[in-house]
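ugh finaly. both done.
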Amino acid sequence: METFDYVIVGAGAAGCLLANRLTADGRTTVCLLEAGPRDTNPFIHIPAGFIRIGYNPRYTWPLHTEPGEGTAGRRILLMQGRTLGGSSSINGFNYTRGQTGDYDEWAALGNRGWSYADVLPYFRRTERRVGKADSRYRGKDGALPITDCDWRHPLCDAFIEGAAAMGIPRDTDYNGPRQEGVGYYQRWIHEGRRVSAAKAFLHPATSRANLSVRTGAHATRITFEGRRATGVRYVRSRGGDELSVQAAREVIVCAGATHTPQLLQLSGVGPGELLQRLGVRPVHVLAGVGENYRDHMMVRSIVRVKGVETINSTARGWRLVREIVKWSLGRPSILAISPSVAYAFWRSRESVGRPDLQFHFSPGSYASGLTGMLDSFPGMTLGFYQLRPESTGFVRARTADPFDDPAIQPNYLDDERDRRVVVDALRLTRTLLHTAPLMAYHDRDEAPPASAQSDEELLDYARERCSTAWHPMGTCRMGPASDPSAVVDDELRVRGVEGLRIVDASIMPTMPSGNTGAPTMMIAEKAADLIRGRAPLPPEHPGID
């Protein structure tokens, strides 16, 4: 049986970064287990390839949520990355840190060292900001290049112009002192190619003799001696022989907000009633494992347009050939853009103190509002989600078989406050799509139809057409000992056991205001210092201009 200092489960955004940092001294040994294959498929590295790779079960976990009232009884497809780089190898690239208040709230909940001033230096250490930046907020020397979208489109320009006329600040650095604003997205695309966490952090470390990366390794359970985690068991295929690796120091679970709680539950760490139902021998009863699930619920509005070429036609026939040629020559092309090209962060009502909505604009539209299959007509899409939803759900293992998908119930729109925000946001979306600059291209409202006017009609539309933004978090939340729902402490150690740490989006106590990829990498960057026993980076207080 092989023994390493650390065994990391999951080669996603957090696992890739941790594997790099923990092996940097050349002496500390790490085994990184990833259930999926290597990231050799070329569609992973071509940004537009997300349409193909994001629905490929070889590289994704094709999970589904449970039916619920908030989804009109539908099950929502919730793909998660299943390859080196995890979801950073299949997702939409947008780099969003969140708001200062998000992390100050984490600290106010009793998590020492997690205020915005505390985490800002870790955000900065991770990134290499390419382009204009305030060095007080942005990093220049990190491994992850963050660029501005260099592709321009008349519909995006008109959206930005119209939003600015409504009072939304134009072209701000939403990862700087203030988030509110409108402009083109920042993303981890560089020189026309995706820069996943695997490409930025893991691949530069794979030549190190003290790092062992094992793909096709599906973790089945964490092993314990008493209450101390000692290693991980895994298989190469369902029904295959079980293999083991030992951890001399720690097991670090980075499997994400859906699979991390499932693995803990199957290993005997979780709610007592659930462990009993699964027939799993309890190692430590911990009620919060799998609870506190939150996700961003996406609602998209579509308008048919006229007088302009959209992605619906650009991505077909000779026009697509033209874009391939442009991309191969290093010029701006639809092959190197995010599915959401322009952004807006704004408030659902004037009385709201800070932005509570994130808008995603695309000069194209997708059948049934799902990313992947383009409509046959020319269209534009404006999607949104509530930045900090109040509704919470759960993730629970269905059976003791680690190959069975867990039950995922997000309980979208369960909280009345979320329903109010969604209705307000749909009205604001309609206003943004009907500004004077965009009306020059407006043909007709496609979805929701112009006839949908009442609160109930708009809420029904949201229930019938909503989908996930693929931002699950919170299922192993961080909190003080006084918090009965807390799973890890503020050093990310699982409460009640030894030698077990969690480093991924599941530890987030509340939802950050935006995409979760950047905060997850920040968490891993900070965790690397915690695990190595290093003093934290000094807090930074640049102030707000």
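ok and the 2nd:
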Amino acid sequence: MCGIVAYLGEKQAYPILINGLRRLEYRGYDSAGVALLEGDALTIYKCQGKVSDLESHINGRSTVGTVGIGHTRWATHGPPNDVNAHPHQGTSGDLALIHNGIIENYAPIKEELVHRGHVFRSDTDTEVLVHLIDDIQRSENVDLAEAVRLALSNVVGAYAIVVIDRKDPEVMVAARKSSPLVIGIGEGEFFCASDATPIVEHTKNVVYLEDGEIAVIDRTKGLKIRNIKNQVKTPFIQELEMQLEALEKGGYDHFMLKEIHEQSRSIRDSMRGRLNLGKGEVVLGGIKDYEQKFVNAKRILILGCGTSWHAGMVGEYLFEEFARIPVEVEYASEFRYRNPIVNEDDIVIAISQSGETADTLAAIELAKGRGAMIIGICNVVGSSIARVTHAGSYTHAGPEIGVASTKAFTAQVTVLTLMALMIGQKRGTLSGGNFYRLLNELDAIPDKVQKVLQKEAQIKYIADIYKDASNALYLGRGYTFPVALEGALKLKEISYIHAEGYPAAEMKHGPIALIDEAMPVFVIATKGASYEKVVSNIQEVKARKGKIIAIVTEGDTMVKDLADHVIEIPETADPLVPLLSVVPLQLISYHIAVMRGCNVDQPRNLAKSVTVE
């Protein structure tokens, strides 16, 4: 959840750290800090607020140092304030440490350290860890790397850490377990970060640390990796494919708006090389070796959190219709705590934009331990989920910086659609004519998304009418029920308006009590199997003076006569409607939030990559 960046080299560290923190601020933005090391002089600046607040705090002060660590926080232990901000120091004042994750057994460690004379200033588990390293370093008379290894052997939890020592300014130590950490290797310089975004402008060569690994970065000796058991590991250097331009706003006011408008391309990129109209086939190279197990599966379990869970719900409809395989969609955060039934002939599909979602990773480990085959769908190359799953497919959405997910959702649904089509064809449960028809419809989706985006002015006008609403209801049926959930989530996340998504038929079983003339009701009423039923639901809302904003198929007249506002989307096959109908809901949420003065890219209390439980 927190953002980590560090530098060791010949350049001044501070500009690199600050720029890196800006790129990582989507991971946490309630406080920030840096530690700079030059010779034996260790300087720490930190404060509550955003990275811009840290810059103001530092302005005019010395920022000399060719070694440095930086951190932007999403609070877990202790409220956001100057004291709880990272970096933290131990009793000696020699060490500075930054941390992403949670040390679960920090309380007994802290109690023991207090008995040993340590004094704590913050409420954080992170300060306990740096005190422990400090204590071991002095009592055992070992160097920093060994002190870190011994300390981590005694902690339970998740961590990505970087530590520096003013007594040894040539060395920086990093380690990870269940939280991401990547090391960039430049010309005579090294970088550490929570992900590749702060590194890409400096080097394309990176090493992704594995769980339980400790990296010792030495200015003269280079990079050495060993694990908690003190076994030497050989670094595997990869080349980044990320482009720097993808991390900029590109003329848009917010990353979220840019990413909404990128969906035509990101959907196309997620199909590229996989959907072949000429040959009439779908090829997913990442799962090719496991196709037969997929074909023979008795059940599919789909795991995800938040938006990824909503994408998984669309996947449930797709797999059951195309491949006729029973599907269950589970919140990853609940899955591991209810002793789930997992069989060896089950397929588990784990979905995560970041590939680092802690709840999803924990659920994967449980299912893997019970013999299931795990397929990953994620957006970040080299992420933890990409490494721990048996196989999988990247979404190719490109970096998503806005905390509220948009293009990741449509990219995930695209990949799930390709999977379901491929398995349906191979199982013989999807007729040849229907298969080819759906391939052609899917190939046309990016252009149709572009047509929806051209309606932004109309959508902005509607947003202005309902920007002051206190509550909103979202209704859909069949394939569009998950879209209703996703639309409501977007409004909640970025505008702080209470909103709920429901199957349209469930409205009369409770939510209808909320409807009055002040209640906007967003209804996805596209032509399809449930069209007439949805029209009946709209009439029920209108009878109670509710305000209807309807997403309809181009040329619709029946709903247009009933609704207060209609947004037309191009006609497509029913299973592909989620890819089009979600776009106007994303835009409505975005414009309402902007009009309400909300921070669209960094909504309160949220972080992009949820790496703690």
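summary for the 2nd one i guess: The chain has three domains: 3-246, 249-452, 455-613.
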